[in-house]
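Changelog entry: the Phospholipid scramblase record was regenerated in this release. Current contents:
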Amino acid sequence: MITGTGQIRAPLTGAPPTYEEAMGLFTDIPPPPFEISILEERLPGVVTNQPGQETDEDIKWMPLPRIDPNSSCPYGLEYLLKLNGVRVKRERWRMFENRRYGVVNNIGEKIYVAADNGSFLYTVQDQLERHTFTIKRESYCLCYGITSECVVECPPGETTSFIIGSTGLCMSNIEITDKDKTGVLNIDAPLGCSFCEDEKLPVLAKKLPVAQIRRSYPDIPLSERFDYIITFPCELDVRMKAALIATAIKIDVDISEQRTRNNN
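Regenerated structure tokens:
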């Protein structure tokens, strides 16, 4: 009921109020108090990252070692001088993004991030975002698995080693050479044949084992995110250590491409 003063009151009769009268019944009722603190207590925190994805705050970088200014070590490879092993981990990436790999030391400190810029051109950076070395695939052939030749440049633009050979399911024959393509290291072992087991690839020098690349089976079943645990002598040349990191990335990419080709 609308009175002469313009105020809306409930009707005195038993008839239901009109829409306008019903809406007017609540005009003088103040809204309940809103306390943001109560809302925060009742609602969980906002999830801004996917589960299992590292944020910038979670990453612990390896401190930059101090070396002799007169050292011949290429800049960016000084992290590898006193290391006897690293782990290469394929990082999560969103759809339509290129591959990314993280390289960490034995205590989990990140050393490098290797990102594919397209057509197998990996730029490897440290925490200072210095381009320490690059990995490029020079040639590519699908005969007898995946046969390719990769060049490693430390620093970018200066060739230090080549990775030549074939990698596929249940096979691997890889030779790591110096800049003059003189053989230094060799890998010749079955690969991709075991199920739910780690695979060990001995790295030979003059037919003697000097290092190893272990392809660690993922904790999640049917996942393709393998880790590559590389062990080598501490006195091994840092350029060859970088070449072994590049070899692990090459193996992972070659096997993934081989499986994709077989599924198609």
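The chain has a mean pLDDT of 79.
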